[in-house]
Amino acid sequence: MSDSSTSKDRNAKTRQMLGMKGAASGEKSIWKIRLQLIKPVTWVPLIWGVVCGAASSGEYTWTPEDILKAVTCMLLSGPLMTGYTQTLNDFYDREIDAINEPNRPIPSGAISIPQVVTQILVLLFVSFGIAYFLDWWTGNSFPMITCITIGGAILAYIYSAPPLKLKQNGWLGNYALGASYIALPWWAGHALFGNLNWTIVVLTLIYSMAGLGIAIVNDFKSVEGDRQLGLKSLPAMFGVGTAAWICVLMIDVFQAGIAGYLMSIHENLYATILLLLVIPQITFQDMYFLRGPLENDVKYQASAQPFLVLGMLVAGLALGHAGI
Question: Distances in Å between the alpha carbon of 85 and those of 5, 314, 320?
């Protein structure tokens, strides 16, 4: 076997373990298949959201206890709740995946339906248990983290499952996904160390409009299957070029809006840093995404999204500094 073929095989297997498009097929290990279903590549934004929430609370300290609390909340938001959401989504998307990604575990027959259902239920109830434990550990008089987790589970269900199946509507579905990426883990991180208030709730829901832009990126890879099945994803409704513009504008405009809010509360340094982070983001949007959204989606996400997530942390630190 040539070095090129070996490299491609390794790349395909890596993509498989991370739950990415272009994965290898033929995996026999049930635990590797289960890992593929929970898509580790999707954990990162949720884990980062917890960090931003801890920062916005203004109460996080670098003590061993606070670090352990934060890591436990990251486990809840990332591998457990995101894993539950992704497995649930694959379960209800098995027909469209048979068109777009037939190598995925469920349409390929690598894992049985009862095994998938068991994975969904285990992830869900372990998540509830850890959320309740975190509320007890942090001394919350009201089980805020548990309520956020239950709300996230319900949102994941109505996003993927009929009759609502929000993902059939490009706007509602992508906003639900954006809120899951940004607002929900942010609330959990904030509630873990401080008192979650309506200002934080509203600001993160606004910030989630930028998350809507991120979520649209994931729709480009399945545009053909969406059209065949009549799903109203934005690329299917508006075409690839227009949807790409909607995507980048949602990300940039709402980040700039958050920067404007930071200026209004006199956090000018943080607002300036946030705006400066938007500049390279726009550059990569023009270089990669707007010129080839189908070919360059992964390259665009790798180059531009780090600036978005750094901007989220800047906003969290600003809110914590302001005592919001």
Answer: 34, 27, 30
Separation between Cα atoms, residue 16 and residue 18, nearest integer Å: 5
* Structure tokens that stand for 115 in this block: 């095994």
Mean pLDDT of 185-202: 97
Considering only CA atoms, which of 237, 173, 182 is closest in space to residue 205? 182
The pLDDT assigned to 224 comes to 76
What does pLDDT average to over the chain?
90
Q: Which residue bears the tokens 């884990």? A: 47
For the chain, which domains are there?
30-322 (1.10.600)
Under a CB-based contact definition with an 8 Å cutoff, are residues 40 and 46 in contact? no
Sign of the dihedral through C-alpha 221, 224, 225, 226 = positive
Residues 113-139 have a mean pLDDT of 98
Which range has highest mean pLDDT (95-104, 167-176, 212-221)? 167-176
Contact 324, 199 (CB under 8 A): yes
pLDDT at 107 over 80: yes
Comparing CA positions, the residue from 1, 38, 45, 47 lying closest to residue 17 is 38
The model's pTM is 0.89
- Does 198 have pLDDT greater than 80? yes
Instruction: State the alpha helices, DSSP H only, in the chain.
Output: 3-18, 30-37, 43-57, 64-75, 83-92, 94-100, 105-108, 113-138, 144-160, 170-181, 183-193, 198-217, 223-229, 234-238, 240-264, 268-284, 297-322
CA 223 – CA 234 distance, rounded (Å): 9
